[in-house]
């Protein structure tokens, strides 16, 4: 390797290592965590999960896999990663990680449902299609594993999507808008419970 390439790699490593999160006071105001909680999270984030202070998708998937050893969590982790990665740069900063956790663990029902809508709206166009819902639900079922009770298969996922999509697509135009999503979740306690189970799998 030439010394120029070595030097470039060192520069890149130094930039990454020097990454520092926003001030704790700013994060306290933006998130629903205390200063002490943020300090503890940042220590854990740097030591255990990503010493550089930034996590890429592969590392995120590896961390996720530790929580779901009975199934394949990689597809679901991919979708969660994309929902957390607001600037779409392929890596999660500590701020993005904290803001995602803040919504999921301490957000209002409205905030959690907005997060869930964003998760299901894979391409970010403001609508959930049946294909997008199928991708997410299939990823959840893959993550839960073959040994879940009751047994989950492809037909179960398809039936679940068909049932939920029919309820949510109020005007029958083939897509679910945010308003339709919110209205259905508010009206149907079972959907809200079902969404809460899936969308807090973090």
TrEMBL record:
UniProt KW Metal-binding keyword: yes
Give one Pfam family: EF-hand_7
Q: Does the keyword Protein biosynthesis apply?
A: no
Annotated keywords: Calcium, Metal-binding, Repeat
Report the domain of life of the source organism. Eukaryota
EF-hand domain ranges (all copies): 72-107, 108-143, 156-191
Annotated signal sequence is none
Q: What terms describe the molecular function in GO for this protein?
A: calcium ion binding
Q: Where are the transmembrane segments?
A: none
Q: Which PROSITE patterns match?
A: EF_HAND_1, EF_HAND_2
User: Which family does the record assign?
Assistant: Belongs to the recoverin family.
Q: What is this protein called?
A: Kv channel-interacting protein 4-like isoform X21
């Amino acid at each position: 390797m030439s010394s120029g390439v070595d030097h470039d790699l060192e520069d890149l490593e130094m930039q990454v290592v020097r990454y520092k999160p926003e001030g704790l006071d700013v994060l306290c105001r933006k998130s629903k965590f205390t200063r002490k909680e943020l300090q503890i999270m940042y220590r854990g984030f740097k030591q255990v999960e990503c010493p550089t202070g930034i996590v890429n998708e592969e590392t995120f998937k590896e961390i996720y896999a530790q929580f779901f050893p009975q199934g394949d969590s990689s597809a679901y982790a991919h979708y969660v990663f994309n929902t957390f990665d607001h600037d779409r740069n392929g890596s999660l900063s500590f701020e993005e990680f904290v803001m995602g956790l803040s919504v999921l663990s301490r957000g209002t029902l409205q905030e959690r449902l907005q997060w869930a809508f964003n998760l299901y709206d894979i391409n970010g166009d403001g609508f959930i299609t049946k294909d997008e819902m199928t991708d997410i639900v299939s990823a959840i079922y893959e993550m839960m594993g073959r040994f879940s009770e009751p047994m989950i298969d492809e037909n179960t996922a398809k039936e679940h999507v068909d049932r939920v999509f029919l309820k949510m697509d109020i005007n029958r135009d083939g897509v679910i808008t945010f308003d339709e999503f919110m209205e259905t979740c508010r009206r149907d306690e079972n959907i809200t419970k079902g969404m809460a189970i899936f969308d807090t799998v973090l």
